[in-house]
Amino acid sequence: MPLVQLVNINKTYQLGNQQIHAVHDFSLSIDRGDFIALAGPSGSGKTTILNLIGCLDKPSSGRIEINGVDVAQRSARQLSDFRLRELGFIFQSYNLIPVLTALENAEFTLMLQGVPKAERRSRVTDLFRQLGIAGLEERRPNDLSGGQQQRVAIARAMAANPQVILADEPTANLDSHTAIELLDLMRRLNAEQGITFIFSSHDQQVIFRARRVVRLKDGSLQSDSLESAE
User: Fold this and answer.
1) What is the CA radius of gyration of the chain?
2) What are the CA-CA distances from residue 67 to residues 38, 137, 153 (Å)?
3) pTM value?
4) For position 216, what pLDDT does the model report?
């Protein structure tokens, strides 16, 4: 069974008197362990698809199943709980809480889940070591570089062992060297731990490093191909 399955998805927004058809009859299956990029220019629908998979929005029609759960039929409260326990998010703007330390930011999801303090500290400390940011636990976001903040965001996304990690333009605010380092790190985590990553990006570095590239144009699937980049 695919980890994520979208079947005949349509998404329409109402903008004043105008209807915006963001996604048209879109179907896609994503397996466990995929490292996949949704690619396309602005307005192609890639962020809409990512938001639908992330249960941040609902389709106008069609079916979305994640780990066997039909999320399109869930209530807002059920979706909030599902996101908390099943999904991890990495944003282009990091979305760290300024008044919390790096460690507190990374364990925030675990705190919301009610994980005991000792266990969440142990998990996050181990992740900081894996991600190369051990020693930065007590720094606040403003005292970290962009690359360090994004590593904290990756730790936060991974801490709760989600079914899938969704990354929306995760390299947009990083210099090319830092972006490449983080993408290679995420590929290693994917290969070694089987973490499923779904990116939304027009960054060629992301697309080059993806093992599968789904290209969109005007809200429709244009191509779906396995890549051979090493």
Assistant:
1) 17
2) 20, 33, 23
3) 0.91
4) 95
- How many folded domains does the chain comprise? 1
Q: Quote the mean pLDDT of the chain.
A: 92
Measure the CA–CA gap between 10 and 2, rounded to whole angstroms.
Answer: 20
pLDDT of residue 230 exceeding 50, the answer is: no
- DSSP, residue by residue, 97-136: -TTS-HHHHHTHHHHHHT--HHHHHHHHHHHHHHTT-TT-
Can you tell me the distance from the alpha carbon of 6 to that of 16, in angstroms, rounded to the nearest whole number? 28
Query: Do residues 207 and 213 touch, judged by C-beta distance below 8 A?
Result: yes
Q: Tell whether 154 is covered by a domain.
A: yes
- 13 in a domain, yes or no? no
The pLDDT of residue 72 = 83
- CATH (domain of 188): 3.40.50.300
Task: Check residue 8 and give its pLDDT.
Answer: 96
Whether the CB-CB separation of 193 and 186 falls below 8 Å is answered with: no
Q: How confident is the model at residue 73 (pLDDT cuts 50, 70, 90)?
A: confident
Q: Is-contact 36 199, C-beta < 8 A? A: yes
